[in-house]
Design a protein that fits this description.
Strand content: over 45%
Number of domains: 2
CATH class of the largest domain: Mainly Beta
Shape: globular
Distance between the termini: 20 Å
CATH architecture of the largest domain: Sandwich
CATH topology of the largest domain: Jelly Rolls
Radius of gyration: 20 Å
Number of helices: 2
Helix content: under 10%
Length: about 250
């Protein structure tokens, strides 16, 4: 079991990513970093690459893919890093994976810092990818409190009954996943040095991906947004409880 993690940091958001090829239509490489699972990048030739110049060395310890057909198309991915835009310096493989399904997946690796980061795709059939994050994960300092439910679902749609009130069925638009996350006995120093900057700079205004246990349940990755507030009620000692809401679509 691993501590919960938040994924929002992204080297592809440090500058405009450049693709080796891009299919005609709405398939720009910039779609990879907009955190929208309905916009895509698609190459026209394989191997294909997407490269970003971060301007200076930036760290990463994960790669996360959400919305793709890599398995269906028989494609594999590699994550590379470089100090000189892949001239003399080209780290062969920081991480690699051949997906076994089209579900979201997470690769975690030893933290490395490079100015240039690259996604490389190999195979024979062109895949489409909606979202890629390569960055530094935010590991929560405590485990979730009792009551967390990773499988809860709320159907968003319209139910139908006949004139006598008998159920006829429902039109399901999607299944919502919504939880209140509570982390007990978090240090005030972590809240001030790590949580507040993450909240102010990103979490309060943009979607992110939440993993409640990336070791035992690596496929349970939730694209969520935070609620409009969080609470940090004081507990004994230099500690507090961190409480905030998240909501998204159940995977």
């Amino acid at each position: 079991m691993s501590a919960p993690k938040l994924f929002y940091d992204n080297r592809f958001a440090d500058a405009t990513p450049v693709a080796s090829t891009t299919a005609a239509g709405s398939y720009a490489a910039a779609n990879l970093n907009d955190l929208r699972p309905y916009t895509w990048w698609k190459p026209t030739a394989l191997p294909a690459t997407v490269t970003v110049d971060c301007g200076s060395a930036k760290a990463a310890d994960f790669a996360l893919f959400y919305g793709h057909d890599l398995h269906t198309q028989g494609a594999s991915i590699e994550i590379h890093g470089s100090t000189d835009n892949f001239a003399a310096s080209d780290v062969t493989v920081v991480a690699s994976y051949a997906p076994t399904s089209d579900d979201p997946f997470l690769l975690e690796f030893a933290s490395a810092s490079y100015r240039y980061w690259r996604l490389k795709i190999t195979g024979t059939t062109m895949p489409s990818i909606a979202m890629v994050l390569i960055g530094a994960e935010l590991v929560m300092p405590e485990y979730l409190n009792n009551g967390f439910d990773p499988l809860a679902r709320n159907v968003i749609g319209r139910s139908n009954n006949n004139d006598n009130g008998q159920p006829l069925g429902a039109i399901v638009d999607y299944e919502q996943w919504k939880q209140t996350l509570e982390f007990d006995f978090v240090s005030w120093s972590w809240l001030r040095s790590t949580w507040q900057p993450a909240w102010r700079n990103y979490l309060r205004s943009s979607p992110f991906i939440f993993a409640w246990d990336s070791v035992d349940y690596p496929a349970e990755l939730y694209l969520v947004r935070a609620g409009n507030s969080y609470q940090t009620p004081h507990t004994n000692g230099l500690l507090a409880n961190l409480i905030f809401d998240v909501s998204g679509v159940g995977t």
